[in-house]
Amino acid sequence: MLNHAMRYVIIIIGCLLAAAAYNLFLIPMNFLSGGLAGIAFILYYLFNLPIGIMNFLLNIPILYIAYRYFGRLYFFDTILGTILFSVALDLTAFLNAYPPLSEPMLCAIVGGVISGIGFGLIFRSNCNTGGVDVIAALIKKLYSYNVGTMVFVLDCLIILSSVWLFDYNIAVYTFICMYLGGVLTNKMIDGFNMRKSIMIITEKPEAIADAIMIELDRGVTFLYGQGAYTKNNRKVIYVVITMRQVSRIKELTLDIDKNAFFIISDAREVTGEGFSHH
Length: 278
Description:
Shape: elongated
Transmembrane segments: 7-27, 39-67, 74-95, 101-123, 143-164, 170-189
Keywords: Cell membrane, Membrane, Transmembrane, Transmembrane helix
Strand order of the largest sheet: 2-3-1-4
Radius of gyration: 24 Å
InterPro entries: DUF2179, N-reg_PII/ATP_PRibTrfase_C, UPF0750_membrane, YitT
Protein name: YitT family protein
Domain DUF2179: 218-272
């Protein structure tokens, strides 16, 4: 029960952060936004219609898609995020009368960072705010396209289609804001502490494993593999380390076996002994 309550608290905080960023830094500069919120922005600028209410109304067909193609649980998460974000947009609307910054570039940067953190909290809590995210997920389901790519494409189409209404500079600042927001959102989802996972194929696995455990104080796992050509069985070293330890582990390994074979990959989020716990 506590975990569920905390999840909802985090979602609410994320919605308020994203909405406050929009009202403090984007709207006073007449910036746009990606997704259906971007269309709500345009309606606000042209007809002074409430952004939150319009965002919810525009999302009604999206809610049907969420229920029709993704089931009740996804539908519930979508309608929860859509309602909370729409309400947050109108609750924080008074903030656009008190912009803390007057420089457009700073507004784009700060607005992108704060909104990215807010959306990251929402998505990390397995929730979403409807809009093009659901459309992108549907396209992926039907045609196997990457969701992130589809979201970016759809966002760009919405912004580019509205450029004729506004100054071209607005579109540029909006893209900067969107890019930074996307980076921060991904960081919030994947975790800020990027690690590296390394597989080492060597003739001296025990010696290298001992060196890693002693010198780097990292646990090592032996995987068992077989060369397809030689048919020789051998131990393969698997270890997860920090970014700073990459050069050191390569140095240790090559000192022991100059012919060692490395595979180094990103480990986007690592929890457990020796790393962060959530």
